[in-house]
Amino acid sequence: MTGDRRTRRLLGAQILGHWQSGVSKRIDVFATALFHGMGVEDLNDLDLSYTPPFSNPWDPVQMGAQVWVETMESGSRN
């Protein structure tokens, strides 16, 4: 995932995974976010589906967005 440091707008994403791992669902989330000009932080506000007994409520797309935001915030303090 990459975003503009100044505007924090999502610029792109790349995913690698097994064909049965849900990669296509997740890349669709990024494609939709790019189409709508969303910021990286906006990904955290999406209400994405999950199955409680089998997965985390935070989708990997959102976990990636959280890491990006944390990285940008810690980089701006240095």
Can you describe this structure in just a few lines?
Helix content is 40%, strand content 6%.
Could you give the order of strands across the largest sheet?
1-2
Amount of beta strand:
5-15%
Give the % helix. Answer: 25-40%
Tally of helical runs: 2
Shape: globular
Low-confidence stretches: none
Order of helices and strands: EEHH
Query: Please, what is the oligomeric state?
Result: single chain
The radius of gyration is: 13 Å
Class by alpha and beta content: mainly alpha
Largest sheet: 2 strands, antiparallel
Number of strands: 2
**What is the average of the pLDDT values?**
91
Give the end-to-end Cα distance, rounded to a whole number of Å: 22 Å
Which features would summarize this protein structure in a list?
globular, about 5% strand, about 80 residues, about 40% helix, mainly alpha
Description:
The chain has helices at 23-35, 60-77, and strands at residues 2-3, 10-12. The model has no long low-confidence stretch (mean pLDDT 91). A hairpin with a 6-residue loop joins strand 1 (2-3) and strand 2. With 78 residues, the protein is mainly alpha-helical. It has a two-stranded antiparallel ribbon. It is built from two helices and two strands, in the order ββαα. The chain starts with a strand and ends with a helix.
Write the layout of secondary structure elements.
Layout: E1 2-3, E2 10-12, H1 23-35, H2 60-77
Antiparallel strand pairs: 1-2
